[in-house]
Design goal:
Elements: H1 2-24, H2 31-53, H3 61-87, H4 91-102, H5 106-144, H6 152-160, H7 163-176, H8 185-207, H9 217-241, H10 246-257, H11 263-270, H12 275-300
């Protein structure tokens, strides 16, 4: 528990610092969109690529890990579809609800894994991201566009243009063929990657919208409880059922215990979903995760 606390509090301190900086106007309103863009297109892809390039992607146990990820997401998706039929949620509302349950804060997750497990855990976590990032993006787009005709191209192209997915794909290819990162490329990527997580956590805090978290408290509370408590419990059960190795099982629980992704708000606005609901989910889940993450991880891992 003390290790978890010592790992977690600096991460949430950075998130709160980002919130404080944004509300105080420092270093300026134009800084945050530029920082998010730099991180999303350069720094974070460098982290994912370099982590995956050194990962054991040819390990047969990866198939079992991928099966566990798909099992958790499939179970959650079926439950969400049943609830949608029950409550007759329109796509604009259903999309944020799905993203609140299935998406995750990659910055917080990788920072947590790096703090607890170091480079070996980070490499394995990158494998998890290579499976989860495209899958949850597809689920999110389908949920937000489920009431209008969407061609296969409209569904697939946003996923294929995602820089995080492209970085995962490129890193997996390098690892699979054993190409390595010669001529100091690994050092260059390491320098870029080192800036990604702290900047990303500051941007997470800057993006929080406290007013949105005060609206629709019922759905916000229910969705947050499902994401922060029910999903890691489901992941823990499936990890045990499939007899995952200890590290894989622990990482599976961690990634399903994370709050939803701040980038879910951007996708929601682009596809004309309920942006206020999505902003509330991102904000409330991020704040609650400061209490739920150490509790869930202390109990389950």
């Amino acid at each position: 528990m003390s290790t978890l606390f010592l790992t977690l509090w600096p991460l949430f301190a950075l998130i709160l610092a980002g919130l404080g900086f944004r509300r105080s106007g420092f270093p300026g309103e134009g800084f945050w969109p530029a920082a998010e863009k730099l991180n999303y297109f350069v720094l974070f892809p460098a982290l994912l690529f370099s982590s995956l390039a050194n990962a054991p992607v040819a390990d047969p146990s990866i198939l079992k890990l991928a099966g566990a990820i798909f099992s958790v997401l499939a179970a959650a998706s079926l439950m969400l579809l049943a609830l949608r039929r029950l409550f007759a949620w329109p796509a604009a509302r259903y999309g944020p609800i799905v993203q609140g349950i299935t998406r995750f804060n990659t910055y917080l997750g990788l920072a947590l894994v790096a703090g607890i497990f170091g480079p070996d855990g980070l490499a394995r976590a990158a494998v998890i991201l290579a499976v989860m990032v495209p899958t949850v993006n597809v689920l999110s787009v389908i949920a937000l566009t489920s009431e209008r005709h969407t061609s296969a191209r409209e569904l697939v192209m946003p996923v294929l243009r995602n820089p995080l997915i492209l970085a995962c794909l490129a890193g997996a290819i390098v690892a699979f063929f054993g190409l390595g990162l010669p001529f100091g490329i690994d050092r260059l990527l390491g320098l870029l990657a080192a800036a990604s997580l702290p900047l990303g956590l500051l941007c997470v805090g800057a993006a929080l919208k406290l007013k949105a978290a005060r609206a629709e408290t019922g759905i916000l509370a229910a969705n947050s409880a499902a994401r922060l408590i029910a999903m890691p419990l489901l992941a823990y059960a499936i990890a045990g059922l499939l007899a995952l190795p200890p590290l894989d099982g622990t990482l599976l629980v961690i990634f399903f215990a994370l709050p939803t992704a701040p980038t879910a708000y951007v996708l929601t606005t682009q596809l004309k979903g309920d942006a206020t609901l999505m902003a509330g989910l991102v904000t409330l889940q991020t704040l609650l995760a400061a209490a739920s993450l150490p509790l869930v991880l202390a109990v389950l891992i």
